[in-house]
Structures are given as structure tokens and as C-alpha cells.
Amino acid sequence: MAMKLGLIGCGKMATALVKGAIQAGVVNPSEVVATSRSQASRDAFAAETGAKTSDLAGVLATSEVILLCPKPQDIPAALEQIRSVPQSGEGALIISIAAGVTAKTMEDGLPDQFRVIRSVPNTPSLVGCGAAAYCLGADATEDDAALAQRLLGAVGVALRVPEKLINAVTGVSGSGPAYVYLLIEALADGGVKAGLSRADAIQLSAQTFLGAATMVLETGEHPAVLKDKVASPAGTTIAALASLEKNGARSAMIQAVEAVVQRANELGGK
């Protein structure tokens, strides 16, 4: 049974998640309604998803689950706007995707009848390959958790974690696609430098990342084990791995995750 889904804010991440959920049959476009401060954003969302747009009161009145999607710095204003709309009856489940903003911050800013789940989806949700995590606020129920799992899990992997780990999730999978795109581009650049056409290099690079990731997920083997299976003694791959280690590839990735966690903590006022 499709859920009645509302959105407050309908930017790129929200659009990717909703398009993926529609494709997975978890929601019907006719039962999705979104609002945004920007008319252009509302129009783009409607064109991409086939869903409806409305004002905030319309979203609050018709939705059982609401994705709260403004930028983190815009959350206080969004919560104030929600409080300004007269409420009656049971409130909706609010699933926030705002990086760094704690569940308690949202609960403190919302009317009492709303329950809160904090989540970190990512843009590959659009192609059914999302990696998300979520945590429950103080008043969220197991039924609410099931709704979040259904929505986020329909477009990839969804894990329930303690809130203290949510910023770490942001560092790994929330921001992670950007790191991978950078690495795909860099690997393709190496192929172009060695003589491949740009189109061929990008296709080979992207497919290699896809294949390697699939191997990790489907075999269940540790990445280090799979890496060693590619690296023959005194061969080409071990020479490349030595170069990557010398240039700090592993350290750079670890520091990237740490930078995200630090920034998310700053956004959350820590």
C-alpha cells in the first residue's frame, strides 16, 4: 500500500529519493505533495516526479509521512513555519534529511504531535542503489521505523543506527558519492593520459567501480582480501597500489570522512 508522502523542500536530494521511491512502487505520484519557498524548485520537482505541489498547510494536512529537506541552516525557519500552521488531530511522521541537525533540535521546534526520524540518504537512490541510515527520535515508534525502512530501503540499503553514528554515516555514504565521482574522474584521467579516449576511459572507470563494489557486496569478502587477489607478486597492480599508498590515497579518504563529521557537528551546534 502506497504511503501519503509530503515534502518540505524539494531540491536534488529530495527529488532523487522520491523518484526512486516512485519507481520502486512505494509511493504513487498522485499521493505525493511538496512545497518549497522557491516556485522554480516546486515546478522542477513536479516536472521530474509527476507529483503535486501545494503550500505548507496543504502538505501538513494530507501527508502521513513528511520528508523535511531544507538546508541545515534553514531548518529553524522551517520548524517555525510548521508551528505557525494550525494543527488538528494526529501529527505526521517527520523524516529529516538535514545534515547535522539533531532529532532533539527538531522535536523541540515542532508541535508535540509530530514524531521525528533523522536520516541520511544519498543521491544514488535515484537508480535504486542508495545507501541510507536513520535513527529514531524520542517519540518515534517501531511502526514509524518500519515506514522509514520501507521508504529508504525501497531505493537501496537502509540501516538503523544510534544517533551518535549518524554524522559518521554522512561522512561515509551521505557525501560518499561525491568522493567516488572524483575517483572515477581521476581514474579516467589516467586512462586519457595513457592514450584512451575520454568516453572509453570514463566508461571503463565507472564500470570498474561498479564491478568492484558488487564484488564486495555479493562475495562478502573483506576489500583487502579482494584487493590482494588482484595484486600478483611483482606485477602491475602492486606497483600501482604502492604508488597510491605513497601519495596518501588511504589517508586522504579517511580525512575526508573526518572533515564531513566535523562539519556536520558544527551544523548541529556541537
Name of the CATH homologous superfamily of the largest domain = NAD(P)-binding Rossmann-like Domain
Element order: H for helix, E for strand: EHEHEHEHEHEEHEHHHHHH
Number of separate strands:
8
- The assigned CATH architecture of the largest domain is 3-Layer(aba) Sandwich
By helix and strand content, what is the structural category? alpha/beta
- Widest sheet, order of strands: 3-2-1-4-5-6-7-8
What is the domain total for the residues? 2
Low-confidence stretches: none
What name does the CATH topology of the largest domain carry? Rossmann fold
Percentage of residues in helical conformation: 40-55%
How big a fraction of the residues is strand?
Answer: 5-15%
The multimeric state of the shown protein is single chain
Largest sheet: 8 strands, mixed
Straight-line N-to-C gap: 40 Å
Rg, Cα atoms, Å? 21 Å
Describe this structure in words.
This protein has about 270 residues and is α/β, with parallel strands linked by helices. The chain has two domains: about 5-165, NAD(P)-binding Rossmann-like Domain (Rossmann fold, 3-Layer(aba) Sandwich); about 175-265, ProC C-terminal domain-like (ProC C-terminal domain-like fold). The chain is built from twelve helices and eight strands. An eight-stranded mixed beta sheet has the order 3-2-1-4-5-6-7-8, sandwiched between helices. The protein starts with a strand and ends with a helix. About 35% of the residues are buried. The mean pLDDT is about 95.
